[in-house]
Amino acid sequence: MSTNPPDLRPDLAPAARVSDRPRRGQPTIGMVSLGCPKALVDSERILTRLRAEGYGISPDYAGADAVIVNTCGFLDSAKAESLDAIGEALTENGKVIVTGCLGAEPDYIRTHHPRILAVTGPHQYEQVLDAVHGAVPPDPDPFVDLLPASGVRLTPRHFSYLKISEGCNHKCRFCIIPAMRGKLASRPAHAVLREAEKLVESGVRELLVISQDTSAYGLDRKHDLHPWKGGEIRSHITDLSRELGRLGAWVRLHYVYPYPHVRNLIPLMADPDNRLLPYLDIPFQHAHPDTLKRMARPAAAAKTLDEIAAWRATCPDLTLRSTFIVGYPGETEAEFQTLLDWLDEAQLDRVGCFKYENVDGARSNTLPDHVPDEVKQDRWDRFMAKAQDISAAKLAARVGTTCQAIVDEVDADAATCRTMADAPEIDGNLFIDDGHETLKPGDIVTVEVDEAGDYDLWGRIV
Fold this sequence. Notes:
By secondary structure, this protein is an alpha/beta fold. The chain contains twelve helices and 20 strands. Its EC number is 2.8.4.4.
């Protein structure tokens, strides 16, 4: 049992879990999945395709005939982590195939690691399979190699990420994701819903909806109609959320930009007959209009406060998570103070923060007045102290209340759970340390909160 540290990277997915054990003599592939939940879904799709072709999935380097490293290129520090992971895989195994966001820069990777077998870019599944075939020929046994109905998953059995689109149409100066992953490309609504149904049928209790811009879902398709359940459904986040919320599992929305139509989601979150959780993950990034303009982001922070107040009026239980950047080029002390004041007024429930980093290819690199590292660190410390105070006060107010919680892990000391207000890995936990012995992952229980910390809760089953 461990409490949730305050400096978790908000861009990271949970660590990939491999529970599959290959049969004797089966060609096996290892997977190192880095970066965000969207990359984790890509890893799951690659492994599902490989399992369907008769490959086994190895949980370690030594048991693998080759290793795929799914890389991240979000920040320069993430690129360094990816290069380190590639180097470790080469040392421990020797046969390495690289894919993912950093794979969009093959020359950069090969300069550091010329021994790799192949490099492919993000969501280039066919090229990854071709590289695997070349390194390790398949040897399927149709009587033994059965693919799980839900495919290969790298998350615990009771929750799963559901990717609804690729790419992004925004042109934020600090971000190179659109250059790597392309423009918005939404999946058809009926395809998303069919996948969600299969996941729920396989035992998933929580669906985590992800994309680069969830609010924009279907915009590229002109919100076209698709057949569903004897009728039609529009490729629109409101319609999709409504149908997902009827499947019986918790549904949690991530990466939602605060477009005006987001207000139409709030009544669904307040509807007790719909399982769309009262939770919005919105990357505000900053609050000062000048900083936002330099970021090439919407600069109406004051209007956002009005929108937040309206959302909470409709759904008082709404949890708001966001991420911010401090030390962006040109950020003055006055601009940073505006951000702190805005955070005081907004009273966001869950907050993550990045210290600005240059990223090769980002337009923000050429902006004037870059902030010294020691000033970035000071502002990050002050920002997180403010966020911690807000979190502690909000959680203290929950002592004595009851809530539902989903069980993630059970050990001898306690059951580690999450409330509707907590996403896996990036938010807090609720611990049950009495009467937890019969609980198992995926159980949803009613808990009375009897203790609160800065980020976590403790409670007892009622």
